[in-house]
Specification:
Elements lengths: L1 H17 L4 E8 L7 E4 L2 E3 L3 E8 L4 E5 L2 E6 L9 E2 L2 E7 L7 E8 L1
Antiparallel strand pairs: 1-2, 1-9, 3-8, 4-7, 4-9, 5-6, 5-8
Amino acid sequence: MKNLLITLIFVAFAGFGLQAQTVKISGEQTRGHGSNAKLSSVAVTINKTMSIDKVEGNCAGFWIQQGSVITHKFYDVTSPIGTTLKAGTYTIYPNIKDKQNSANVTITLK
């Protein structure tokens, strides 16, 4: 009975490891005058290659940075679906639409 209980506990915890990990990265941009636009994004580290599963926001596309290097640029919110990001630390920033003062974007990675 004790061995059965240990086996069931092991199987339960092993099942948690099989669930897909989901990571979200968000960013915002507020329009400024000249070159003083405000960009905001909290850096997120992923430990394995992951794919963009979902994009949400009120932006005209966005860009993804790894450190100070832009790794991806998108001009809409549908074409990024399926794009992969390798392990690393990323930030994301939205493009502001015309006549808009601010924009936000969130991507979901799986």
